[in-house]
Amino acid sequence: MKRPETIIIGGRAYNRRVILDMRRQQLDAWKAAQPEQPALFALKQDRRPAAERSAARRYQEPSLLVLMQERQR
């Protein structure tokens, strides 16, 4: 089934393509009006292993130091 060319809104018929073009223009204008927010400090590359970058991964995969501490107990 093919899409209808017109959309009825409030009892008036509108061309679907015209509405989509107008919406794209709205979004482009909105994006252009948004100020760019600079970083407050220099961002550094996270050099930790992938397993240590988040708390969930650290819990799932304990590191060598954690394993050594558990053995000493």
TrEMBL record:
This is Uncharacterized protein.
